[in-house]
Every structure is written in C-alpha cells, then in structure tokens.
Amino acid sequence: MAKALTIAPGDSVATLLEDAQAGDTVAGVVLRSAVPRGHKVALAGIPAQAPVVKYGFPIGHARRAIASGEHVHSDNLATALAGTGHYSYAPKAPTTAPSPASTATFEGYVRADGRVGTRNEIWVLPTVGCVARTAERIAKQAGAQLVGQIDGVHAFTHPHGCSQLGQDLDGVRAILASLACHPNAGGVLLVGLGCEENQVLELLAAIPPERHAAIRYLTAQFSTDEVEEGVALVAELAAQATVPRQTVGLDRLVLGVKCGGSDGLSGLTANPLVGRISDRVGEAGGRVVFTEIPEMFGAEQMLMDRAADAPVFDAMVGVINGFRQYFIDHGEPISENPSPGNVAGGITTLEEKSLGAVQKAGTGRITDVIGYGARVRSDGLTLLEAPGNDAVSSTALAAAGATVILFTTGRGTPLGFPVPTVKIASNSDLAARKPGWIDFDAGQVLTGGFEGAEAALLARICGIASGAATAAETNDEREIAIWKRGVTL
What we know:
Residues 11-78 form the SAF domain. This protein is α/β, with parallel strands linked by helices.
C-alpha cells in the first residue's frame, strides 16, 4: 500500500507521498496507472464538469468523467478561473487559538530608529545599469579592505534606470529608495552615471532625510576615478556603521515569506510549516510580509475573510483585481500558471497552487496592504503588491523591510537576495540531493509532525538572524530584480 494524504474532509483527491504503481492500493482505492509522488489520485468517481476538491476547496473542474483510482492531472482537470473577481466582506473569527507568546530571541543590530537588522553590511546601489559593473568593482575592492569590520559589502545591480517613463521609472526608483532604507544596510553608496533618467539626486530625494546620514553618493561622469572615490566612501560609511549585536525578541523580526519551484508536497509540508512560523512572529508582535499576488487567484476570498477591517479588505480587492486586469490588458489568461516545474511536481491548476501557497501567511489577521516598492508600516501580517516571479517578488520583500526571507521550494533553486534567504525543501529527497542549496528539510513533517519541525525551524531562523550564513550567502548568491511594466525608449 502506497502512502497518501487527504488534507481536508470532503476532498475528492488524495496526494501521493511516494511513487506508486498501477494496482497499488492508495487511500482505499486501487490505482489505475502509475502515479508519481506529489501527484493526485481520485478517491471516488468524479462526473464531468464537477468540481475537484483539495484543501477543502475546488481546485478546478473535471474535463471529463474521472474514475476512482485515476491519476488526476492536466489531461482531466481544468481551471475554473476567468476575468476579475467579485468579493464580499465577511470577516471571520480566527479558527485557531493564539499560541503562548514565543520567548525566542536573536542577536540583531539595533538601529537608531529602533528597527533591527540581521546583518550589518554596506550596500552599493547603481541608479542605472550603465554603472552596474562599476558598482560591483567598488564593492569587491572595498569588501576586501573591510573584512572583519562589517558583515560585507555588496553591490545589487540591475539593467534599469534609463529609457523608461512614468510608472516604470517610478517603480525602479521606489525599489532602490526602499532598499537604501533597509536596516541590514549600515550604510549605502548610490552610484550614478550622470545622464540617466534615474538621476542620483532624485533618488536621494526619494529617501527619507533621516536616513541620509548613512548614505553617500557619486556620479561617475563627474569623477576622476569613480572606483577609487567609491571605495573611499564605502570606508567612510563602514567606520560609522560598526555596532555590536544585541539580544532582541521575535517582535523585532520582519519576516518575508515566498515560495518558488513548488511541487505537490509544498502545500502539505513547507508552506503550512512556514505559516506556523508566520503566526509565531505575528503573535510576538513582529511583522510578516507576503506577496505573489497572481498566486492567490482562486484562494483570495479565504485571505480577504482575514482582513482586519473594511479598508484593508477594499485594498486587498483593489490589488488582486488590479493584477487580474493586468493579465487581461495584456491579452493573457489569468490562469497561465503553474510553471512546467510545478506541473511536473504534481500541481495542475492555479487554484491548487494558490491554495497551497497562501498557507505561508499562517492564520493571523491581515493588518495592512502596501504597494510595490513601499515599506512595511504595521505590525502583524502585511500584503505586498508584487508578481509571483521569484527574483522580483523576493526583491520587493527585501525592499519592504524583510530582514529574513523564508523561501519554500519543492524543485530547488540556488537564488539568493539582499537579505538572508532561508531555503526550505518541501521533501526530504531535495534536501538530501541539494545540501548546497537547502537550509531546512520540511519533509520531516510527514514522519515527525509539525511540532518538532516548527521548533527546529524557528531555532534555525533565529540562528541565521543572529549571523549564521544561509546556503545562498555561502554561495555568494545575492541578486535583485525589478518589475518591468512599461515601454523601453
């Protein structure tokens, strides 16, 4: 008998926890064909056009009649998503009681404004792609000179900042300005070219004045030796950024949550495990930021039911329907997701992917909604406007102020971002095969349950927040990507 899991009462499918063959008995039914791990099997006959239910919610409808024991996937299951949505404000009480306040602590860098960083680094931010390599040379040379004085010097390059108009250019400036405010950056060097649309002084003006003491800038066209000047400015920033770590509680943590390269087990192991951590941080008075708006389609009403008040609900509707219209305006179906890797891992429709993905946000009230490039401003759970793309959304989480990102994956990825990015595998096979990518194995919940895994993951997060390197940091994987939404001149 092969192992499988039925998630909620009334589900019409079960998810395989291991590969199974035709004739194997799974969840009380006999398989009609081989079914890979993470894929679904029908628990009873499902009529044509009837809803297929997983997580207690429809994940689409049957393209044709599906027999008991049949593999349920792309050939016989179709999405039901189309157009913009119509939602109602019907707040619901939390279904789970709050846990006792966590006494977990970490060693962070307490800034003058009270925010707490998990790293003390100098960030070099180019205004435009033309000086991206210049920024990298400055960071490399300065970093070599400052080993042991600060946690690192890193350049975050991008190809944007010129030949852009309106909202497109505004988005670049907003992301860079928010990154320049990040508590993990003890100092920031802005490197401009001189003739670009994203002028360095305009970028500086988008940064709150109280942050300017930790910022320096240069314009390469007006510098005799921009690299030498940049290295000297970084050294100046590092001299004033040297501070000790201090013991603080989870209330000082800003957690970003993200999934990428998901599989059929992501919604059963890694994502709900991260959701439990999100709840612990929120209950402690900390902040949690979640995004990937297109990966909420089909699950958005259950999130909206958790809005703290009517204005938050209205803001959620605006962001989600705005993204739906974004797809429609470009002539694209809103259901054109999951990715080929998701499908190979057992995810069939966007509804299924969304119902698994939103579990990262736990069960708490959603207290705020912020736009792309904005910075978190409320305790508790914040919804951030950004697409599902791994690099773009993770960059937006960092810009919003996340000091640690929890990134769940069933397929694996080496990518890292400006802040410590904790890779959490949905299955133990991935964790074993890619130890150079993965920081935590959430597959253990299938054998040991959530309680022990939650305690172990929280301890790992606190260790990383206190300075332990993630796999991505060890591999020097630190990238940003900016959402390109407009024309190129």
